[in-house]
Amino acid sequence: ATATPPPLLFSDPTPSLHSSLLSAATQHGFFHLTHHTIPSHLPLSAESVAVSLFSLPNHQKQLLFPNNWPLGHEIEDDEDSAASPGAESFCLGSLCSTESITNDLDLDPLREFTGEMEELGLKVLEELASAVGFKNPARDGLQSQLWISGGTNKPGRVYPYVLGLHYQIRCQKQSLLSDSGWVSVSGQTESVLVTLGDIAQVWSNGKLKKVRGRPAPNLDDATDNPHCITMSLLITLPVDSTVFPLIPDLVENEEGGEHDSPNNNREQRLFNSFSFEDYAWRVYNERLLLKDPLIRYRV
């Protein structure tokens, strides 16, 4: 299926913005954000640096970006074809730092891009929490990761997140796995494709639709560049976090309860609490599961 996500103007007045956010989040789980604050030159500069990372010799990639789950450099094994290389990616923290201090890499454009995207994502999350009605978490309880992928149209590793921000440098379709199945999303130049993740769905007590993993370039057109670079900023959680609905005044959904209970008019809890680290490890290593990994935590 091909979907055209609704465009949201971040400069809209609050009531209009909240109405648009609520509609897009509950019906689609993704949307295009326009009139944002990301300078148009910055993504191009960051992409140029990202391209240089893939040009490094393998031994230097491993030295500068050692694998420290989920951070670092990784080349996945391609289970479909022994002759085809797997997805290659870098997962960098918000500071985009390397292990070695003696290198000639200038990562400042990546750091600046990450910082701008992170600030935008936190503002979107704040507005989304207000629109949906869940508690907005403190910023020090969140983390950001910049995922850079290249050389394949496969989605690569999956890591749980609250919000994903994907700057659209070019007008190119993206493939993503939503609650309604695989969809091809039309591109919109200089907009930010925002995807809501599994953690956002739990926080909203199931009100929001979600996207699993990161969008991947749709390379059906033979003229497309198969070595394109994708950069996604994920707002996620520290590994020692516990995930649970953030809707106030939830009640347990116990069968056989009194029908005249004063709690009957209150919202029922749809998810049990769970360890973020255990969940993240499972979805990361099992990749895109055929079944929704949140099913086991539903009440």
UniProtKB/TrEMBL annotation:
SUPFAM superfamilies: Clavaminate synthase-like (SSF51197). Pfam families: DIOX_N. One of its GO terms (molecular function) is metal ion binding. The keyword Iron applies. Gene3D superfamilies: B-lactam Antibiotic, Isopenicillin N Synthase, Chain. Residues 15-64 form the Non-haem dioxygenase N-terminal domain. It comes from the Eukaryota. Keywords: Iron, Metal-binding. This is 1-aminocyclopropane-1-carboxylate oxidase 2. It comes from Sesamum indicum (Oriental sesame). The lineage of its organism: Eukaryota, Viridiplantae, Streptophyta, Embryophyta, Tracheophyta. The gene is LOC105160982.
